[in-house]
Amino acid sequence: MNIRDTTAYSLRAVVTHPLRAFLTVAAIAVGVAAVVLLTALGEGVRGYVTKEFSQFGTNIIAVNPGRLQTHGVPLGVFGTVRPLTIEDALALERLPAVESSVPVVQGNADVEYGRRTRRTTILGVNHAMLRAFTMDLANGEFLPDGDPFQPRPLVVLGATVAKELFPDRSPLGEAVRVGGNRFIVIGVMAFKGTILGFDMDDIVYIPTARALSLFNREGLMEIDIVFNATRSVESVVKQVTTLLEARHGAEDFTITTQQQMLSVLDSVMNALTATVAGLGGISLLVAAVGILTMMTIALAERQKEFGLLFALGIHRRQLLVLVVLESLFLAGSGGVIGILIGIGGAVLVSHLIEGFPVSLEWRYIAAAEMVALFIGAVAGVLPAIRASLLDPIETLRTE
Amino acid sequence: MISLSNITREFVVGGQSVFALHDVSLSIDSGEYVSIMGPSGSGKSTLLNIIGLLDRPNQGTYVLSGHNVTDLDADGLAVMRRRHIGFVFQFFHLIPRLTAEENVALPLMLAGVHGKERQEAVDKALAAVGLSDRRKHKPDELSGGQRQRAAIARAVVMAPSIILADEPTGNLDRKSGEDVIHVLEKMNAEGITLLVVTHDPEIGSRARRRLLLRDGAVAEDKRPDALRA
Ligand SMILES: Nc1ncnc2c1ncn2[C@@H]1O[C@H](COP(=O)(O)OP(=O)(O)O)[C@@H](O)[C@H]1O
Ligand SMILES: [Mg+2]
Hints:
The complex is a heterodimer.
Chain A: H1 3-15, H2 18-54, E1 60-65, H3 86-93, E2 98-113, E3 116-125, H4 129-132, E4 137-140, E5 154-157, H5 159-165, E6 175-178, E7 181-189, E8 194-195, E9 198-199, E10 203-207, H6 208-214, E11 222-227, H7 233-248, E12 253-257, H8 258-300, H9 303-311, H10 316-352, H11 362-388, H12 392-396
Parallel strand pairs in A: 3-10, 5-7
Antiparallel strand pairs in A: 1-11, 1-12, 2-3, 2-6, 2-11, 4-7, 5-10, 6-7, 8-9
Helix pairs in contact in A: 1-10, 2-8, 2-10, 2-11, 8-11, 10-11
Chain B: E1 2-13, E2 16-28, E3 33-37, H1 44-51, E4 59-64, E5 67-68, H2 74-84, E6 85-88, H3 100-110, H4 115-128, H5 144-156, E7 162-166, H6 174-189, E8 193-197, H7 201-204, E9 209-214, E10 217-222, H8 224-228
Parallel strand pairs in B: 3-8, 3-9, 6-7, 7-8
Antiparallel strand pairs in B: 1-2, 1-4, 4-5, 9-10
The structure holds adenosine-5'-diphosphate and magnesium ion.
The site of magnesium ion has 2 residues of chain B, from helix 1.
């Protein structure tokens, strides 16, 4: 039996029962579509988040006060946690491997201009912030490199804040009140959008020392360190640790590298994707049971046909191929339709929810089709074996 | 052509042993026309199935056109069946979704014959049974007699050496039955060995050799023409 005849025969058998074929194809299609769509969304979110996190470059480490990874008894029981200070940041900057350091304080306060007020996020940072986090200015300048302890009262507005407070004029050179204190606007940031629901434009930047006094804080929340990309992360972490330990008398701080952040993020995203793929897998399993049932019913009806084929001299192997092909057709086309629906769904989602990240992963799509075909093969083989074991005499005896 | 020696076919049903055929020895020459009669349950179908290689005897030896087929495996039997045997069943067993022409082409398809060669064989077989003008009809658009003629075309399309017909007129009216017998006899006249199982004495008596089975054994084996000659 040649391939064309075999294929034509199996196809013919499939299309003879359009409703049955449709149901089987639909079951597989739904499962595959679920896998394709869900993984596209999952991977899209993963890719998006990873990109947002790594856009700052990998040569940044963050130092936070307090010991996060203390084993056993919390450090606070024995000693006090010394705050991170601007002096610490300056000392770190003098390390050979460190290019710049950004002392960070964050809080919320009202920003006022005339009769307009907006409550927004205040970030106390220094001039190095702009380069460390590769941010762009729309107008004016960023905070200058001045006296870190007595900085001038200058402020840089995020795009949203600038638009809200200065809807019809340039804010440059204007005086605003931040938490009641007078600041002069020297720059406006370029539009950044949101990262994980956080509006990156609803922020104003003021010098760290000003933020410390504004929020009445003793210590920094974080020091971000940009190190020379030719140095290994490990050596920088070691230098930073040694220096801060010497200054504080204990390891009362926590260092987080970009790699650590990314790997935590990655494991979360992996779990998410696995869950999502699992859900799709369950729907494929349901489809598998469906196709098996359909094939079993369909073949039970065709016992006479198989008995006849035996009488006409078909080989057991040929019959197996014929029957398995039928189920492969159903499953394979269900898979292809499912992939198209899945892709369509992903495209639709990315259009409906503006900016929603979707990423069609060919390896998942290929895997889904493989699984569909595998299901088809399995669901076909069992009834096919049963068909090939039929006693032709028995089936041909009656009408 | 067909040589059966001491063939026994035993079925065990619920611990009870039933001998469908018991120590049957029989020889049929190429081109013979044999009718097989006998009461229900006498072993006629079993005999045909064994000759047609659909069934195997428990004991005995079967030599088909010089090949000992007694111990062939399933694939070997399928090949012999394809090459030598054409079946005609009481219930036609045409595949409903296929046209008459496609049903007739099935054995060729299974044997890997394709293209022009296949079409010519199909055309010839359909013409031989007088169904050329019904080639595109599906079985449910054909009368009983036409269906059985399509089945005969399917049986002869591979140019077999033997046609085995198990009550081919059992499901037909008198007129259609006669048509079918005439078609089968025409095939026989062209040299194909013909074995017909029938309940109809009139049809049975048309054969040049008449077997009567009783309780799984050949009770009579008559050749009226030969006697007269
Ligand atoms: N598959 C089978 N299982 C059990 N008994 C069978 C089977 N096939 C045939 N027989 C028995 O063998 C005997 C001969 O059957 P069969 O050859 O069909 O007779 P016929 O065709 O002459 O009516 C009967 O008694 C029948 O019941
Ligand atoms: Mg019978």
